[in-house]
Amino acid sequence: MSENLVELTATEAAGKISRGDVSSEEYTKALIAQVGSIEDKVGAFQHFDPEHALAQAKERDAYRANGNALGPLHGVPVGIKDCIDTSDYPTENGSKLFEGRRPYKDAAVVTKLRTAGAVIFGKTVTTEFAFYHPGKTKNPHDLERTPGGSSSGSAASVAAGMLPLAIGTQTNGSIIRPAAYCGVFGMKPSHGLVSRSGVLSHSRTLDHVGPFARSLDDIALILDVMTGYDENDPDTKPYVVPNFLAGVKEKFPLTPRLAYVRTPVWNKADKTTAEAFEELAESLGEIVQRVELHEPIYGHAWDDLRAIMSADMAHHHGKIVGRGGDVASQTLKDFIAEGRKVTATRYLEAISQAKQFTTALGDFFDQFDAILTPATTGVAPMGLGATGDPAFCSLWTLTGLPAISLPLLQGENGLPLGVQLVGPMRRDARLLRTAKWLLSHLSHDQEAELA
Amino acid sequence: MSENLVELTATEAAGKISRGDVSSEEYTKALIAQVGSIEDKVGAFQHFDPEHALAQAKERDAYRANGNALGPLHGVPVGIKDCIDTSDYPTENGSKLFEGRRPYKDAAVVTKLRTAGAVIFGKTVTTEFAFYHPGKTKNPHDLERTPGGSSSGSAASVAAGMLPLAIGTQTNGSIIRPAAYCGVFGMKPSHGLVSRSGVLSHSRTLDHVGPFARSLDDIALILDVMTGYDENDPDTKPYVVPNFLAGVKEKFPLTPRLAYVRTPVWNKADKTTAEAFEELAESLGEIVQRVELHEPIYGHAWDDLRAIMSADMAHHHGKIVGRGGDVASQTLKDFIAEGRKVTATRYLEAISQAKQFTTALGDFFDQFDAILTPATTGVAPMGLGATGDPAFCSLWTLTGLPAISLPLLQGENGLPLGVQLVGPMRRDARLLRTAKWLLSHLSHDQEAELA
């Protein structure tokens, strides 16, 4: 029974709970059992209290039994990265500098999840300050490899079947990279689509919150809950947001056009990855056009992101890290020291450049539905001392464009390799539909091959 | 006839034009005649073409004659500061570096004015780059004195009866100060209420656009037209904006409470000004409570504004000023050089501080309807080589709070002295009502004294 339940997608589980085929308590117990059998090896959780998770599940069941209308995530457990505030669990931002920190209220996005009926299952491991220095989490596909970061625990918990859904954050490559390394779906929605209020602040320009799941429908399901205007995040906008789940279920009206993009850091891709993508692009035929983003125009984007991120992190974290003596990692201290040297004019120029990239790439989407590009430079690297290279995520984070990693390919040793699709600004629903088309197209191809 | 017409407020003129009591052509001709008689002395205009103004007025009359519905400013001439783009007049930003610059389209706020039926009469003098180095304008009350800056021509043209309305910009004290020196109403609306798209950019954090007029109703009339969401200005918000003119015409429900605020730069006020305000506060009795904003908490606001403004100006103007050799003033070059030295962390800290001041002062408005404080340190100073001290405007610009200067007092030599009211964020309508109450209260007092 438990074995079956942990394999459910969130959409399936929500349907069963809503119909009464399974209770939130049974489902949550199955996930707790899965944690019991595998968490010792994976180390995805920073804070987890099975009693507290079960209590919420029982409360959800009682609520349903009383005949109340149910939210779209009613009774479904969700993992929350430990740099996102929760009123019931500690939030320690992956650093002893925040040891025992207990926020008095939920982050805006956690409130939205609770309102939709979700069970806040536990807090997933983040790297130190959601930056590079790794936490304890291992890659469920190979325990000697990094799960990626900084949303290490969110990606690993979903990959290991301990949760159907988790949320994380990205300031450079912190959702897309661990999703790709762990072989799950991960999405960085458009900048400003999900409120960052109550989330550890690195950079107003670069910070994003997004979900992890094992199906594309699940990404749409939770995105419907997470998005929306919040007056406490000045970059969210009171626009109407489309229904994402309804969108991915619609038939795609036309065959999409994809730009297979090689950025100026393409040479970082390892041989297997480069070959796998060449092959993928080839197999998609006329749908795909090859596009090179040239060094003279796009080459400085990586430095621009670094200037913004280091200065913003020095601003937000310089004092607490400075007071912390040897508690913070040298990596973090060095980056903050670098940020202190950035001038305001360099910082402002980098932000202007980011806007120009967003505009330039916006024109691009007049011709293409999405950009197709690797999520990472290769499969999850060996070793647990680092979390891998975010270089293939930087341009899409700097520009705020929505990006999703799809677990479609395999690299060396059969390890997962993520296909990244990038869409036009605030057209996240269109990006999800394009992703759905690609998934469906490739599975038909596979079926055809098998037949 | 002309003499009478130029004395009309904009509200009166709009009413007469709308009813057909006077044509836009007649009214515009009267203003042109006034320009003919006084502009040589005052020098309020950078670009003015009477033929073009008259052609617009005739077009407005023809439009009315055809039975069309009329906008609230139909046929009413408005002056536009020469750092605000116009498609029909050059926009030279007060600098030879922009000589002959002809924008291909109107700034968003100019489009709004045209849509409301306004006649875009001419471009009013701005100081160099809307910063400190003065233009040619003189104070209509005393031609040997500065009109204030940077919106020198907008304030002077309205004070001299050449226009009923003009718009200007403020990044430190550039609306409130010239309004006070020239004895007219001037308003800096809440940050984000009026779009800055198409306006010379100094600083996203500090830039504001606002109106000048000879009556409070006129300020409300034009504000109704100027405000609103613009997707090209990321700080405007798609909120519903109240009808300001209807608001100022309502009876004030309760006697307002005012905080007579002395900031940490109070010692800059000259003796006459300090005495005039003590007397005003005294005469208002229990309505007013004296509040000191203390140095340890608020003292660094002036440095914070300077860090933000200098860095932002270095970012926006550093290149063009650098290329300009000796064309730019030393004042401007020095400020840009200062801005280049600001670090990103200092800049970001100053912006955080600004937000904290806004929050702190927001709590303040739970107890008071508005802050009552001098608009300037004294009357317009002698000489045309400088534009006076903006120190009494800085805190309200940094915080983005709405501020209005009311021509209620007289200082030395009978010259105008502005009373500044500052209101809660985005409660501009409430601020206008409080201002209306104060005007009405003081005029009743005067009547009582005369009786």
Structure keywords:
homodimer; 451 residues; alpha/beta; Amidase signature (AS) enzymes; 3 domains; 11-stranded mixed β-sheet; 16 helices; 43% helix; globular
How are the secondary structure elements laid out?
2 copies of one chain form a homodimer.
Chain A: H1 2-7, H2 10-19, H3 24-42, E1 45-48, H4 50-65, E2 77-81, H5 108-115, E3 119-124, H6 152-159, E4 165-170, H7 176-182, E5 185-188, E6 208-213, H8 216-226, H9 244-249, E7 258-262, H10 271-284, E8 288-292, H11 295-298, H12 301-323, H13 330-341, H14 344-364, E9 370-374, H15 391-398, E10 403-410, E11 416-422, H16 428-450
Parallel strand pairs in A: 2-3, 2-4, 7-8, 7-9
Antiparallel strand pairs in A: 1-3, 4-6, 5-6, 5-10, 9-11, 10-11
Description:
2 copies of one chain form a homodimer. Chain A has 451 residues and is of the alpha/beta class. Chain A folds into 3 domains: 2-249, Amidase signature (AS) enzymes (Alpha-Beta Complex), CATH 3.90.1300; 258-294 and 347-450, no CATH class; 301-341, no CATH class. Chain A has helices at 2-7, 10-19, 24-42, 50-65, 108-115, 152-159, 176-182, 216-226, 244-249, 271-284, 295-298, 301-323, 330-341, 344-364, 391-398, 428-450, and strands spanning 45-48, 77-81, 119-124, 165-170, 185-188, 208-213, 258-262, 288-292, 370-374, 403-410, 416-422. Chain A has an 11-stranded mixed beta sheet with strand order 1-3-2-4-6-5-10-11-9-7-8, sandwiched between helices. The radius of gyration of chain A is 21 Å and the shape is globular. The two termini of chain A are 32 Å apart. At the A-B interface, helix 12, helix 13 and helix 14 of A face helix 12 and helix 14 of B.
